[in-house]
Amino acid sequence: MGFSAAARLWGPPGLLLTFVLHPALCLRPAQTSAPRHRDYCVLGAGPAGLQMAYFLQRAGRDYAVFERAPRPGSFFTRYPRHRKLISINKRHTGKANAEFNLRHDWNSLLSHDPRLLFRHYSRAYFPDAGDMVRYLDDFADRLGLHVLYNTTIAHVTLNKDRQAWNGHYFILTDGMGHAHRCSVLLVATGLSVPNQVDFPGSEYVEGYESVSVDPKDFEGQNVLILGRGNSAFETAENILGVTNFIHMLSRSRVRLSWATHYVGDLRAINNGLLDTYQLKSLDGLLESDLTDLAVVKDREGKFHVTLKFFLEEGNQSADAITLPQDDSDNFAMRVAYDRVIRCLGWNFDFSIFNKSLRLSSGGEFSKKYPLVKASYESKGSRGLFVLGTASHSVDYRKSAGGFIHGFRYTVRAVHRLLEHRHHSVAWPSTQHPISQLTSSIVRRVNEASGLYQMFGVLADVVLLKENATAFEYLEEFPMQMLAQLETITGRKARHGLFVINMEYGRNFSGPDKDVFFYDRSVGHTEDAWQSNFLHPVIYYYRHLPTEQEVRFRPADWALPRPTAIHHIVEDFLTDWTAPVGHILPLRRFLENCLDTDLRSFYAESCFLFTLTHQKLPPFCQQGYLRMQGLLGTESLWRHGVESGLLRDYTIVGRRREDQGQGPLSSSQAPGPPVQPLDSNKEEL
Predict the structure, then answer these.
(1) Which CATH superfamily is domain 37-191+348-414 in?
(2) Fewest Cβ atoms nearer than 10 Å: which of 83, 92, 170, 185?
């Protein structure tokens, strides 16, 4: 039988060869392909993950975002349960400045595309969560971000390698068993694990994540809510009109956001129960440590609150357990409840991370948040950064780092850090002559959104050049990393620096503060240091502070004690442009620190300075002597004449002609912006 006959019997020749080689193939060990390598891996396609993806893409970096859901923003498809966001969507400010408008836009991510502003997605002041899902979908789609959907990362570990950027690679294993290798891991998974307190009877408690949102299910019921945050009050607000009463139990007193100035505390939109409590309409708030309590269920299915130690006295039946009202007949929670609902917030999901990453110390606070430095890098693993809500431990109860309008800027700061560390791209900066220092600071404190929202966390830094002739301006640098500024940014701070921060008054924020007290605002510049509302504070250092100085700074100080400090007095309109009240004191402070004159002058004033002074103001040195002074225009000349600052040479010329002296020569009449009446008078 020839080859052709064999082909008819066995089919294609390759099939016969396969059967012949099959035993040998079985004897060889299976060869697994090497994991796909990427420079940057981002876990989670929520707002923080997409924001980082945008910056990586714009920089042309090798990255991928891993998302377990089929679309971005999966958290918002379910939460908040009652669908109303508490992030402000202020569509109108009366200003055209895009950066200023972001101060009051709490939902938009940063991008170059003006279509991707949240105001185009909702007209509501407190938008629906569905609008956020739609917005994030478009953000990822229109910008072409590299997101791997339906990819669940089940395990993350380290693989040490001396050739890796950080001395190790991160190995991510997905639910299909595929491995992914990264040089840098950026965790943006948010807080997704419901916080639970273990106490006797906790099995009877319904969770915020699963309780019904239909008010009809609570008709005529007695309800106990455990917790005192926005999720607890959001739940109460939904059923307030249908229940017999709602009691709310927590170990701490209620924290109102308008008193604490922390957007994560109770917002006015959810606080209807405070009205019904204080106006004695059956609802109420109680304080007690949940770990000291127990919940027991009677024969009728009602729930009773008792003390934990009563249950520890012996194995008693549910109907025989001692209740507090047995000893004290006016015990506040002596009534029976139909429902007990847990609304205790969320924790970070540590379950997928190998212990070698050392994300948690096991402490109480680190159960909620991973351990990170002020640079948002993990304390346990170099090259692992935590972004977004999960990074809020850096500024918990202090600033807005746990929310979109805050972490969009902290994510950008992390990206700038990575650009310098791994790609030798220095932190972005602009250079200016020293005469522009006052105007540069004034512009930023009046426009910048990152400074405004991340007060006390991100600050602008001005690096002075030699002899204070020029400066370099760096925006939104993590303040607590100031001692490492040169390492992080690639910029040098050898001749002194200014740090520009936004701060509230030190005694103006707290759950026990009366923020509506009479005379709460400060209006006089000499009292600016006592300003209560958010206002700019400028720190001057002759030398870059050391790590020890930053770490052991005075209590309640944002930074180490400076060489000099200046508060710009608070302003009701948050508009720090008043020439006398805001700009003049700032300029004089800067001049005292630099021992120089920062005023601007007309060209002729500079000319007179050259004749009468040994040292010229920087403006004249950098402008007039380079033929860049304020040159004359007809309108500027007329303004000078009308204000009395300049002589009107046309009138002088007519007088000379009337007296028979002839017109002024060209040297006598230098043109419109001519000799000021007072050469030392500040013109601008």
Answers:
(1) FAD/NAD(P)-binding domain (3.50.50.60)
(2) 92
